[in-house]
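From the shared-data thread, chain only:
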Amino acid sequence: MKTHEKKHRRRTGLTVPKYQQVIETLLAEIRGGKHGVGSQLPTEWEIGERFAVSRITVRRAMEHLQNEGLVSRKIGRGTFVVDTHPQLEGGNIGMVALLLLGVSPDEAYSIEEIVTTERYLSERGIPFSWAALTEEDLIRGRFPAVLEKRHCSGLILDGFVTEAHLALGPQFGVKLVTVGNHLLPRKAHQIRYRIEEACRGITLKLANEGARIALALEPMTLALSLEMVRGYSSALGEAGQAEELLYLCENDAPPESLVRLIQKSATPISVVTTEYIFKNLLKELRAQGPIKKSLTFVVVTSVPVAIPQDLRAYTVMLKTKTMHELAVERLLEVMKGRQETVFEELDCEIIPPHQALAD
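Structure, as tokens:
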């Protein structure tokens, strides 16, 4: 593993998914000569035992190695090494750039995306660059050098993407794919989450349990917020609750009115929010005294969040590594002319509260 990747992971507490650990280990062993061309890899069961992972995880890793041209999987016979150093793709692809739009490159999400994208491309010999672009930059026509000098052939847009950003493709002659949740037409190349569906399901469950629902959001995360609002609102309607308690939190700071609602409500309260507001709201509430047992959180997050044992909290985990890998994979297909349209929605992993608290 590269040194800068290790530094990023130490800073953010990010862990490598198990399937990626399997891929990296087997890749190193194949390229190191442990498994030569023509040799058979251990069975899925044996690999699963070695890494303490499920067969589904092993199959995902095997599919990745097969897609890279390293192995061939033969039904009933096993998996065989067919190449140790498949020819790199970079010669006919050109540079791929990641453009962060209104998102700090120092955030854990951005760091993970940069590391994941760079590693994915470097394994294929494709040069990579990244830059940040603010709304003011876009309005004033100030663009990163990687665009101005037309160094890149493909572009991944992440952050607060609008149709104005989509115009960067024809303007600079690049193919592009957007990542995240945006208010974009389906014809735009984009990969997004099913946040609306996830929030609707959990909110409906809590509303049916008799809880009042409060939604606490940052105004800046417009597209993400609207997805959450739609899921939340449809769940309230389905549960027969007309009341909507929506709180906008400037600079991730929960308003006093939300804190008062939680403190004084005689009925159970459930707060649907994001990781940053959750941390600040929790800090505010603990300063006031013990957390009420009738309080439930639903935290939408892209990085693991430590949930204290004394809280009841659901986590809607956005699988960013999967999204980032899929985005660059689809972009390469678009750049090669293999993919006409890209519109994919990824499921969010819903992590329930500790069983003891759920009971």
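The domain at 90-192+320-345 is CATH 3.40.50.2300 (Rossmann fold).
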